[in-house]
Amino acid sequence: MIRPDEQTADQNPDLPLVKLWGGRFDEPTDAFVEAFTASIGFDQRLYREDIAGSIAHARMLAKVGVLKTEECDKIVQGLNAILLDIERGDFAWVVAYEDVHMNIEARLIDRIGDVGKKLHTGRSRNDQVATDVRLHLRGAIDRILAELTRLRSGLVDLAEREADTVMPGFTHLQVAQPVSFGHHLLAWYEMLTRDADRLVDVRRRVNVLPLGSAALAGTSYPLDRAYVAEQLGFDGVSRNSLDAVSDRDFVIEFLSAASLAMMHLSRMSEELILWTSAQFGFIDLPDRFCTGSSIMPQKKNPDVPELVRGKTGRVYGDLFALLTLMKGQPLAYNKDNQEDKEPLFDAIDTLLGSLRAFADMIPALQPNRDRMRAAARQGFSTATDLADYLVRQGVPFRDAHEIVGRAVRHAQNAGCDLADLPLDVLQGFSAKIGEEVFAVLTLEGSMAARDIEGGTAPAQVRRQAAAARAALAEQGA
Ligand code: ARG
């Protein structure tokens, strides 16, 4: 991933370096201050949104009669030509022009002459940058949602295939009860589905147009804000200009949702890392998702999950950077807000990359069913089933718990599983135990018995997978 801020922002000798706001200044900006205050190194990433916003603004200015049609046409042509230049890599970003907005505007004026100077009518960089960031984040959310859908679909496919596969379910990382591997995968699906829901909700508040708020107080031009919103696909326009230019809640909301999604990916990573270890051996990851060691020839390391687990911290950091950035700011716009972009872009790239890696990796995961089954047989995972059996024979649950506890201790001393104890030994713990108890003590019997909505019975897992598939189809997956 090459980030725009890794590109060099060198000077273009062809452009006259006249500041677009130079009028009231007596001396040039200190060279270091110029570089220190510039955001062009990272906000050039917003060029598409900036140009789209400017075109919509120009068309609206023509519609309300502030620009003549020919003027608007020249501006739109000029902006489209600049877009092509940038995409072709034929555009030198100039630090002296500070940011993406003034780089593009200066180039426009350079290209089409004085008409270009009319574009900024009724607009400020304050509402311009808020618009650009909202447009950019909206696009990013859509790409993230698409990757989330791909990952969720992969989980549902795998869960359906593995509905009958038994694995140990854990509490305290101790074997607790047998569960379906498909059930475990659908637990991950639920976590990620909440993440998708949250992002859809955040997107509603992102998709509001600030343009028309100008610097902070609105503008005296008769702008048609609804027309700009319509052209850019916004659901509506902001209601308060002071709020619109200073609000970055939508970035923080996104970073919160992104942090939760990364936390989920990190938990999934942790399990994948455990499961690929020799001690568990539950799954294999194909070689293409792993790397080796430069010294230990036998090693195959689960790098992708490890990196995702590690990258989670970056996104939490991005969230805290934004919360802290905003906490002391008076209304309305402050230059502090320029600091919103790098954490936002970092979180977008990190989440998108992590989701992409997971969406590619999950369908390729190879379960080792024998190992999972053997692990589920350890740790007396069907002890609760024996207690439930005794309850069905009329024993109160607390007494049943005590009886099974004693049977477990006995089996432990004998070095065997509950199901391996002879019937007469089991009957020594309770006379209510009959021959049919052995069906109850099997892993499959235990799993199938939990045939309740949300339970681990394979029949339930298949039902949940089908419901998930239907929900994904409704979302157009
Ligand atoms: N580069 C600035 C930012 O990222 C754009 C807005 C600057 N506005 C201003 N009044 N200095 O926030």
From TrEMBL:
Subcellular location: Cytoplasm
GO annotation terms (biological process): L-arginine biosynthetic process via ornithine
Species classification: Bacteria, Pseudomonadati, Pseudomonadota, Gammaproteobacteria, Chromatiales
Catalytic class of the enzyme: lyase
Swiss-Prot/TrEMBL catalytic activity: 2-(N(omega)-L-arginino)succinate = fumarate + L-arginine
EC number(s) reported in the record: 4.3.2.1
Name listed for the protein in its UniProt record: Argininosuccinate lyase
GO molecular function: argininosuccinate lyase activity
Family: In the N-terminal section; belongs to the lyase 1 family. Argininosuccinate lyase subfamily.
